[in-house]
């Protein structure tokens, strides 16, 4: 990257500006997506950035869908787009201009078999979008020139950009290096899997249906699907939750196939006391309760996220005790030990980047150590709460050994914990047809 393209993002963006663009135009969606991308570049995660924009504008569901699609595509191709912009723009553009160009370039280089929009439409609508916002209006001619030059010199520009690993893989360099070090054989497949669109996997509620019944229900609804686990069903074409048969009545939930391994591994029996120590939004809490009549305490440090556990329990007609508390502390605990503990600890989320493609651009290299330190404290604190003979399942959605296997090994030594059979590291994608997220599982038992 040229020196003039070193990142200097202005933190103040005029995101509250109400545009006069037509709500159903591509220009409107491009401008919204660009604002979200610019917010990500100042440290906001993408779902929050989009929610922030939608909270103050009357954006139709269709336009929201289009904005979200463009912003997510942009995240998956940001390395390449920024390398192209560095070649094309005479000096580093202002943040919103850079984000708008990155969104346009993501559409113009989309890996889809059929391009999402005609290229000339993307160019025209990007210029229209630039004209419509005070932070980009002055750059209208530059935006036009950059995109038209990209059209003319596409092959050569891409060839040069792709010489840089960040542009080739669309991850920060430190992330590429970390993947290579941790997974010398699989790092390319791992990075590639993180750039794909995630599948839509459902978990059937064993209290309300069987796999056979539910597959039949989908067939009757004309939705192609296949069973990819004892409770896991993958829909061939992802759809919104409101279109999933039985979702509203709690017959199914959305949950990755890998994440569905947690509840069966915990081996919860009726009547057991179970602690789900980092529970929100409650996917695993609910699965535990679908499989056994257990007394579950669902804990989370974030009250807003914990409220989502409540909503999920309600939809599925299940019950648990909800506690907003810090799993590093025992201040909330009544001293009664648990038979089972699930520790689905906070982590870098490097194993679920295909669902959250913004994560790679938000994380910093030092986050891994910081989060591993926090989760070690959580694990150490939870161990005293486990009854003798009880089991603790440690889960992360990370690919970094520091947060996963190294953490598990050190924990076992610190507490003389017996390590039981568990999958260990699941790489994203996984075995053919399964297509799960990159999760880590370690199961411990306390000596009786
Ligand atoms: C990986 S998510 C849990 C996902 C959840 N188990 C599921 O399956 O839906 C980690 C959760 O840990 C929570 N968390 C972070 N730090 C925490 C702490 N110190 N104590 C308790 N919860 C914490 C976060 O708010 C987040 O909801």
UniProtKB/TrEMBL annotation:
<keyword id="KW-0694">RNA-binding</keyword>
<feature type="domain" description="SAM-dependent MTase RsmB/NOP-type">
    <location>
        <begin position="190"/>
        <end position="447"/>
    </location>
</feature>
<protein>
    <recommendedName>
        <fullName>16S rRNA (cytosine(967)-C(5))-methyltransferase</fullName>
        <ecNumber>2.1.1.176</ecNumber>
    </recommendedName>
</protein>
<keyword id="KW-0963">Cytoplasm</keyword>
<dbReference type="InterPro" id="IPR049560">
    <property type="entry name" value="MeTrfase_RsmB-F_NOP2_cat"/>
</dbReference>
<keyword id="KW-0489">Methyltransferase</keyword>
<keyword id="KW-0698">rRNA processing</keyword>
<keyword id="KW-0949">S-adenosyl-L-methionine</keyword>
<dbReference type="GO" id="GO:0003723">
    <property type="term" value="F:RNA binding"/>
</dbReference>
<feature type="binding site">
    <location>
        <position position="344"/>
    </location>
    <ligand>
        <name>S-adenosyl-L-methionine</name>
    </ligand>
</feature>
<dbReference type="InterPro" id="IPR035926">
    <property type="entry name" value="NusB-like_sf"/>
</dbReference>
<dbReference type="GO" id="GO:0005737">
    <property type="term" value="C:cytoplasm"/>
</dbReference>
<dbReference type="InterPro" id="IPR001678">
    <property type="entry name" value="MeTrfase_RsmB-F_NOP2_dom"/>
</dbReference>
<dbReference type="Pfam" id="PF01029">
    <property type="entry name" value="NusB"/>
</dbReference>
<dbReference type="InterPro" id="IPR018314">
    <property type="entry name" value="RsmB/NOL1/NOP2-like_CS"/>
</dbReference>
<feature type="binding site">
    <location>
        <position position="300"/>
    </location>
    <ligand>
        <name>S-adenosyl-L-methionine</name>
    </ligand>
</feature>
<feature type="binding site">
    <location>
        <position position="326"/>
    </location>
    <ligand>
        <name>S-adenosyl-L-methionine</name>
    </ligand>
</feature>
<dbReference type="Pfam" id="PF01189">
    <property type="entry name" value="Methyltr_RsmB-F"/>
</dbReference>
<feature type="binding site">
    <location>
        <begin position="278"/>
        <end position="284"/>
    </location>
    <ligand>
        <name>S-adenosyl-L-methionine</name>
    </ligand>
</feature>
<dbReference type="InterPro" id="IPR029063">
    <property type="entry name" value="SAM-dependent_MTases_sf"/>
</dbReference>
<keyword id="KW-0808">Transferase</keyword>
<dbReference type="InterPro" id="IPR054728">
    <property type="entry name" value="RsmB-like_ferredoxin"/>
</dbReference>
<feature type="active site" description="Nucleophile">
    <location>
        <position position="397"/>
    </location>
</feature>
<comment type="function">
    <text>Specifically methylates the cytosine at position 967 (m5C967) of 16S rRNA.</text>
</comment>
<dbReference type="GO" id="GO:0006355">
    <property type="term" value="P:regulation of DNA-templated transcription"/>
</dbReference>
<comment type="similarity">
    <text>Belongs to the class I-like SAM-binding methyltransferase superfamily. RsmB/NOP family.</text>
</comment>
<dbReference type="GO" id="GO:0008649">
    <property type="term" value="F:rRNA methyltransferase activity"/>
</dbReference>
<dbReference type="InterPro" id="IPR006027">
    <property type="entry name" value="NusB_RsmB_TIM44"/>
</dbReference>
<dbReference type="InterPro" id="IPR023267">
    <property type="entry name" value="RCMT"/>
</dbReference>
<dbReference type="Pfam" id="PF22458">
    <property type="entry name" value="RsmF-B_ferredox"/>
</dbReference>
<dbReference type="InterPro" id="IPR004573">
    <property type="entry name" value="rRNA_ssu_MeTfrase_B"/>
</dbReference>
């Amino acid at each position: 990257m040229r020196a003039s393209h070193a990142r200097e993002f202005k933190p103040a963006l005029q995101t509250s500006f109400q545009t006069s663009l037509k709500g159903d135009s591509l220009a409107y969606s491009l401008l919204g997506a660009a604002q979200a991308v610019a917010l990500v570049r100042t440290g906001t995660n993408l779902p929050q950035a989009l929610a922030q924009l939608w909270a103050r504008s009357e954006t139709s569901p269709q336009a929201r869908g289009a904005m979200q699609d463009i912003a997510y595509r942009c995240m998956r191709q940001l390395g390449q787009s920024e390398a192209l912009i560095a070649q094309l723009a005479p000096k580093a553009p202002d943040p919103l201009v850079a984000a708008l160009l990155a969104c346009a370039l993501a559409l113009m280089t989309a890996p889809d078999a059929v391009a999402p929009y005609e290229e000339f439409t993307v160019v025209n609508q990007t210029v229209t979008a630039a004209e419509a916002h005070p932070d980009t209006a002055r750059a209208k001619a530059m935006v036009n020139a950059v995109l038209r030059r990209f059209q003319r010199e596409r092959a050569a520009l891409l060839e040069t950009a792709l010489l840089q690993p960040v542009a080739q893989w669309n991850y920060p360099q430190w992330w590429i290096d970390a993947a290579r070090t941790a997974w010398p054989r699989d790092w390319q497949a791992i990075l590639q899997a993180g750039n794909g669109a995630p599948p839509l996997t459902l978990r059937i509620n064993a209290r309300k249906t069987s796999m056979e019944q539910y597959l039949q229900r989908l067939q009757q609804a004309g939705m192609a699907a296949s069973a990819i686990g004892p409770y896991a069903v993958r829909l061939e074409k992802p759809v919104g939750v409101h279109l999933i048969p039985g979702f509203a009545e709690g017959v199914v939930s959305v949950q990755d196939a890998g994440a569905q391994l947690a509840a069966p591994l915990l081996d919860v029996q009726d009547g057991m006391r179970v602690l789900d120590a980092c529970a929100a939004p409650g996917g695993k809490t609910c699965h535990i309760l679908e499989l056994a009549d257990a007394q579950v305490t669902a804990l989370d440090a974030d009250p807003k996220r914990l409220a989502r556990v409540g909503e999920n329990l309600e939809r599925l007609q299940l019950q648990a005790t909800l506690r907003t508390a810090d799993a590093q502390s025992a201040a909330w605990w009544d001293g009664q030990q648990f038979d089972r503990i699930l520790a689905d600890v906070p982590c870098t989320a490097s194993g679920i980047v295909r669902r959250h493609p913004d994560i790679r651009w938000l994380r910093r290299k030092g986050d891994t150590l910081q989060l591993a330190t926090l989760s070690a404290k959580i694990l150490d604190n939870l161990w005293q709460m486990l009854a003798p003979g009880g089991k603790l399942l440690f889960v992360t959605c990370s690919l970094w050994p520091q947060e996963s296997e190294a953490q598990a090994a050190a924990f076992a030594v610190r507490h003389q914990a017996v390590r039981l059979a568990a999958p260990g590291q699941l790489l994203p994608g996984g075995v053919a047809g399964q297509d799960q997220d990159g999760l880590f599982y370690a199961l411990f038992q306390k000596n009786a």
